[in-house]
Amino acid sequence: MSMESKTEASLRPTLEATIERILELLKEDDNHQGLAVTPKTSTKLNVLDLAHDTASLVRAHITKLSLLVTNRPVTVSAVNRILDELAAGPIPSLFITIDLCIPELYTSLISTELKSRTKRIISELQSLIKKLSSESQLLDDSPTNCSEKIRKDFLFVTGKVWDSCDSLMELRTLGIAGLLIRKAEEYRDLIKDALYELQEWALEESDEEDLDEAQSGEKISTKIVHSFGSPRHVPDSDPTSIRPRIQATTKKLRLTTLLFEAIIKRRLKTLPVLPRIEIDANLDENPIKTVEIVRLLDCVLEMMKKIHDITDDLVSSFYDLDVEQIDLEIDRCFSLASKASGILLNDWRGKQDPFSNWVLKFQSEMAVERFSE
Questions:
Q1: Coiled-coil region(s) at which residues (predicted)?
Q2: Which of 140, 171, 155 is CA-nearest to residue 9?
């Protein structure tokens, strides 16, 4: 054995200790207490920048590690150096990123999303380091001792780390506004889907019961079998005035999707870069503080989600021809839509604009209607 090989061999206990240290660091995810961060104690560092840079470092180190491990012979000292750098900087930074991304400054959506994506990196790193520890062939310095299958498996796990890092890095590209817009568009599209289904149901033939009476007993039995689980239809006589309720509901749902689009265009796409801690103290230029903007955003997004949920219940109540429940869901859905429109009535300077005037008209259209029985 050459002097160089002896030196490399002597480093193996150090490498094993480094691997164990990293696994212990990553285990902290299970019982991480976190820093006591508040808007007042938060640093001026933008957490999305920190998350991006940390994920980029993790990705770069894992790329180097993968190249070293999958190309023979393995240089133990180089592998140990890369793992040591991971343990010293990027891995602790992952936990710091989670702690600093408080919902009061970054919105509940971003805080939850960043935490989820960061934890995915931690999980994928655990899988990779465990594989590095358990597959002895990966770190064997023999030029032919690592099978092709083991190399491919390691590359597969490496790819999952890359994907998780890319996912976290994407948050800076999207920004707070971008992620909020994506979520608002998702809720808008779901309501559009529910509206389309309700319209399709309303257009279907409603005289199936009359046709059944004219058919033979065998055909009636077949019809009954095929109708199990199918939505009921409004009778021609419409004794409970369901059709006027359908017309009112479809009109208001269309207006609600327009509200979501208006919020996206007039409020989310004009959202200032957050957080802006440095200028929060200058009330002359910035009358609305970051924490207040974030509170409004959290509130309106939560209402959008509830409106979507209630819309599903509303459409289901039409399928059941349950007039009492229909009226209840109509009131819940459109009262909430009216309230949601008022949350962002003023722009981010606290002043009225064309959207403010449109909201007043929207709220008038959302007023509760009384239907005759």
A1: none
A2: 140
